Amino acid sequence: MIKIEENKDLISNIQNEAFSFSDSSGLDRIIQAAGKAKFVLLGEASHGTSEFYTVRAEISKRLIEQKGFNCIAVEGDWPSCFTINRYVKGYVPLDPLETLKNFNRWPTWMWANEEIKDLITWLYNHNQLIDEHSRKAGFYGIDIYSLWESMDGIINLLETKEAAELEAAKKAFACFEPFHRTPENYAVSAALYGEGCEKEVADLLLKIKNKWEHTRNCEEESLNLMLNSLVAVNAENYYRAMVKGGPDDWNIRDHHMVSAIEAVSKYYGENAKVIVWEHNTHIGDARATDMKEEGLVNVGQILREKYGEDQIFALGFGTHSGTVIASEQWGDEMQVMEVPPAQAGSWEDALQKAGPGDKILLFTDDNRELFNESIGQRAIGVVYNPEYEQYGNYVPTKVSLRYDGFIYIEKTRALKPINIPVTLS
Question: Which residues lie in coiled coils (predicted)?
Answer without folding.
Answer: none
